[in-house]
Structures are given as C-alpha cells and as structure tokens.
Design brief:
With about 200 residues, the protein is α+β, with helices and mostly antiparallel strands. The chain is about 30% helix and about 25% strand. It is built from 8 helices and 7 strands; from the N terminus they run H-H-H-E-E-E-E-H-E-E-H-E-H-H-H. It has helices at about 10-15, 20-25, 30-40, 85-95, 125, 155-160, 175-180, 190-200; strands at about 45-50, 55-60, 70, 75-80, 95-105, 110-120, 140-150. The chain has a 7-stranded antiparallel β-sheet, covered by helices on one side. A hairpin with a 2-residue loop joins strand 3 (about 70) and strand 4 (about 75-80).
C-alpha cells in the first residue's frame, strides 16, 4: 500500500534516529530509581502475546509497591482474584515474554520493564505477597531484560491526572448494561449486582 511504513528500515528513515538520551537510557537491571518508582506504583499494565502473536494488555493494581522487587534482576507480580479468563497467564504459557508499564498517580513519567517470565505457585514465594489476609493464587516471576523510564509527553498531552479533566462516570452506561447490550441473554440489573458484589467480596 502507498504511504505505508512496512519495514524497520522504512520506519527508521521516516522517524530518524533517537537522541542520545533516548538511545542510551536502557538498563538491564533494577536500579535504585526504578526500585523506588515500583515501590510508589499502585497500578501497571501487562502486555503479553500468545505463540501466534495475538496481543493483550491487562491492568493490574493494588497498594503501592504491590509488585515485589526480589533483587536487581527479578520482580514478583501477585495474581489476585479475577474473572478466571487468565488471558495473561495463558499467553505466558505459550510465549514467556511480557512488557510492564508502571504508573504513579500525579507523576508524568512512567517506567517500562520488559523480561522473561514464569508462573509460580511456590508457597514460600507467595507468602510475602499476601494482601488483605490472603495469599495470591500464583505469581508471575519476571527476569529483567530491559528497564527504562518513559518521558511525560503522553501524560502532559492527556492531562490524565488533572481532576478538571475527569469525566462523570454517571454519563456512561454501567458495565452490566454494556455487557447486556453485547451478550445475548444477560440481564443488566443482575449483571450489575454481580459485578458490585465481586467488588465488595472478591477483590482478594
């Protein structure tokens, strides 16, 4: 197709070379700044793909520091209760590489971590990841390949932390209503009640 960038070489010619700061900032371990950022972060996104390259990105969140820095080369990510789709876990079983994007409310910068992973159910490894009196079902063990901070341009443009830009949730349909519109046979009131109950009783 015309006007399509389809090879790495075409992309590089179109965009040019990165500046020295961007080109040289990648680390291969968790340094003190990355460790401190992870300790502050209550939210991150996990990107994964299956053996065929089908991609998925899922949110993960808990109290700040919920991702445990085991050492300079290893992260432990608790797997709290969800809906049992386990999309990320199934992808890891087929393709054990993931990318993480850590965020800290109020910060413009984000932290990116890429690495090779496995899934552990070792009780000794899971015990330190306990929250609300419950140990996670499993943990993702990440061996670090790349670590680097991402600049604040996306956050500045989006003004994501600006309360004046926050939308009124009541202007958008409830999740139960949305699912009922998308899936035949689902009753929206019952779906919303089930979702609300899961928030109250099944977070951990």
């Amino acid at each position: 197709m015309p006007d399509t960038l389809s090879t790495p070489a075409e992309i590089r010619v179109h965009y040019g070379s990165p500046g020295a700061l961007a080109a040289n900032k990648t680390l291969h371990h968790i340094d003190r700044h990355a460790r401190a950022f992870i300790a502050l972060s209550p939210f991150m996104v996990i990107a994964s793909s299956d053996a065929k390259g089908n991609c998925d990105a899922t949110p993960r969140g808990d109290a700040p520091g919920f991702v445990h820095v085991r050492d300079d080369h290893t992260l432990l990510i608790p797997d709290r209760r969800g809906n049992n789709r386990v999309d990320t876990m199934l992808n890891i079983a087929a393709n054990p590489k993931i990318g993480l994007l850590f965020m800290v409310p109020g910060f413009g910068e984000t932290l990116r971590v890429n690495g090779r992973v496995s899934i552990s159910t070792d009780p000794a490894l899971l015990a330190p990841l306990e929250a609300a009196g419950k140990v996670p079902t499993s943990a993702i063990v990440l061996e670090v390949d790349e670590v680097f901070f991402h600049c604040a341009k996306a956050m500045i443009r989006s003004e994501i932390w600006n309360p004046d830009r926050h939308q009124d949730r009541k202007t958008f349909p409830s999740l139960g209503r949305i699912i009922a519109d998308q899936v035949a046979g689902v009753e929206p009131v019952a779906a919303d009640a089930n979702i609300d109950e899961s928030y109250r009783l099944r977070l951990y």
